[in-house]
């Protein structure tokens, strides 16, 4: 079972030959052309903007009058998201070595600042852990966790220097409760949740906030890309527009976290407070 987005192949980050080729391609993609943009509008950099939650979030911020900087690998789908806006498009492969660094540099060079970073790019993998190829373990962890952290590391200094900004991390309920047959994906998203908590503490007093977005299942291409459809009857999938609205509200209100739908805080709380009860309920109801 593989989970490549847009049918691209995966080169393990450790392979230097592949890494160099990939880095060169990625550098070419994110170089960005033309003079720096002059805008008095607030700037949001959205990764994963070519599809699903990222695309819906980008459209929500465009409707709110923000300047968009959009990233994903598929330029054609980025153009669709950007339609009718003056978005800057920076196609980039975040699984490439230095992909996150080059994207952040290109975004800051192009717009001078990033007020909000929405780190939405991500992939899934479903199936028994014992059958998961090592390359897929690396691939999920690298994109969903490492690349996101590197991107935040690159963008954050400019926010701290400006004394304002917000990092929005797209986690998952899988990271809150641990979902069977999504062990590595759950681990990556749990890592993001812990990172959000720790970073928020470090940034206290800087004017920069961190929001963790915790969606349950969402109707996007995510399941088709990972190669396994969503088969549970509960929770029912929600729309990417609903997640985008939650992101928008969380940024407007400076919220630390937002669950979509909100009742999903319940299993996360039960698991955190009484893990034995949580496991017993899980064994009984699945
Ligand atoms: N759908 C759900 O049920 C669900 C639930 C909870 C959390 N989430 C999280 O929400 C986020 C967005 O997922 P989605 O549902 O919107 O899925 P999606 O429709 O498959 O979108 C995934 C996005 O990630 C980008 N991406 C994938 N690999 C990339 C790479 N190597 N470099 C750069 N960009 C890459 C894709 O861009 P290209 O196609 O252009 O490569 C695409 O824009 C993910 O972090 C996911 O884990 C999803």
UniProtKB/TrEMBL annotation:
Official protein name in the record: SDR family NAD(P)-dependent oxidoreductase
Swiss-Prot/TrEMBL keywords: Oxidoreductase
InterPro entries: KR_dom, NAD(P)-bd_dom_sf, Sc_DH/Rdtase_CS, SDR_fam
Highest rank taxon of the organism: Bacteria
Pfam families named in the record: adh_short
UniProt-listed PANTHER family: DEHYDROGENASE/REDUCTASE SDR FAMILY MEMBER 7B, DEHYDROGENASE_REDUCTASE SDR FAMILY MEMBER 7B
PROSITE patterns tied to this protein: ADH_SHORT
Residue stretches making up the Ketoreductase domain: 42-221
Biased composition (Low complexity): 22-35
Organism: Streptomyces edwardsiae
Residue segments, region Disordered: 1-35
Xref: SMART domains: PKS_KR (SM00822)
Taxonomic lineage from the root: Bacteria, Bacillati, Actinomycetota, Actinomycetes, Kitasatosporales
Family membership noted in the UniProt record: Belongs to the short-chain dehydrogenases/reductases (SDR) family.
